[in-house]
Amino acid sequence: MLLSKTGDYGLRAALYIASCSTEEFISIREISKKLNISFHFLTKILQKLTEKKLMISFRGPKGGVKLSQPPHTITLLDVVLALEGPNFFEKCILGLEQCRTDNPCPLHQQWVPLRKQLIELFETNTLATFITGFEKKQFRLRLDDNRLTNKKIDLT
What residues form DSSP beta bridges with 34? Predict the structure, then answer.
């Protein structure tokens, strides 16, 4: 089980927005450019996050998106479930439709406890936790973030 491109890009966009630490709307074009994500694809992803009340959007020249609540209140699980759907963590790690407890795939028994750990990990970490971790380790979240140059994380 891996995040889809929608989940991956949506999580990265949410982290980017949280890292901007501004109350103003951030242009979707800016986010698209900084994270090297297709503008149209990103717009659809951010629409989903807006529908799920994790973001607020505003049209117009000063428009864009912003988080609907402080980053310390939005968990990674909130973002993943909003984009991947409520049954995301119930899926087979191999993607087999017929895999379930009464008809397990070869990795089912090993996947179940790992899945629970992954849910807990996503549930106990917020966007703010992640951003703080990036800053402490001096990871670079944005392409133009020159103040964090020692180490960088590739979010593309």
Answer: none
* 89 has a pLDDT exceeding 60: yes
- What's the DSSP call for residue 63? -
Question: Cα separation of 90 and 92, whole Å?
Answer: 7
Angle at 8 between CA 5 and CA 10, to 5 degrees: 100
Could you give the C-alpha distances from 27 to 55, 70, 140, in angstroms and in order?
13, 18, 20
**121-133 confidence digits (pLDDT tens):** 999 999 998 777 6
Widest CA span of the chain, in angstroms? Answer: 55
For each of the domains in the chain, give its residue range(s) and CATH number, in order of start.
Answer: 5-91+126-136 (1.10.10.10)
